[in-house]
Amino acid sequence: MSDIEMRALPAGAVELHDARSRRRWTVQLEPFEIGVFAVTEEQISELLGITAEHPDRPAVDLSWQRAIRVCNAASEWEGLDPVYRFDGAEVQWDTTADGYRLPTEAEWEYACRAGSRAPHYGPLAEVAWTAEDGVRHAQRVGERMPNLNGLFDTLGNVWEWCWDLLDPARYGDYRVFRGGGFADDAWSVRAAVRRGGDPRTAQDDLGFRLARGGFDRADAAQGWSLAADEERALLAGPLPSGWTPRR
């Protein structure tokens, strides 16, 4: 398979926020690795045996569930322990495994910001493909300037799936994606913007970036925990205006 170029990032901290609950918190991260580029069509082609029409573009039209399976396929290709286990539609993360996986939200934002506290890690026209460029599809990876971690296209070009649930009280099993895409204006292409979608759906401006790193604690790692997901799915008190609870 084409080389998956990874960047090792040191331990550090990142501040996250939840707009609905108006909560801010700091996540302490252990060292981990993350892809220098989004996964490309060429890499998907080699893993899954399908044709790549545009080998150097980010792979898009991949659901979260498909991205999870690609992570395991990449692990098996390189002889690494697969990270994800399946029980029907339910996916479990073996946090001790050393294979490829999706980054957590905290890992993604830490990697994207590369020490910056600004919405963009550089002038947007130099680091990201956005609606201002007038393009109609994802662009070849690595054409814009990288951030200080040496990562390309963490802002713009395509959104990127993360492991985390978006807001389980309101959206059930919707998963987070980050970074903005080629059709989005500057307001959406910011390091802190959170969006999400059904894990079974795919979009032409949504791909993913690989991460690696195993951890000692079960059911919790890098700002995510199963217990926190279960707690966030509970809704006490009156419903916020304009929405109904998950079904």
From TrEMBL:
Coiled coil: none annotated. It holds the Pfam family FGE-sulfatase. Gene3D superfamilies: paralog of FGE (formylglycine-generating enzyme) (3.90.1580.10). Residues 51-212 form the Sulfatase-modifying factor enzyme-like domain. This is SUMF1/EgtB/PvdO family nonheme iron enzyme. It comes from Microbacterium panaciterrae. The lineage of its organism: Bacteria, Bacillati, Actinomycetota, Actinomycetes, Micrococcales.
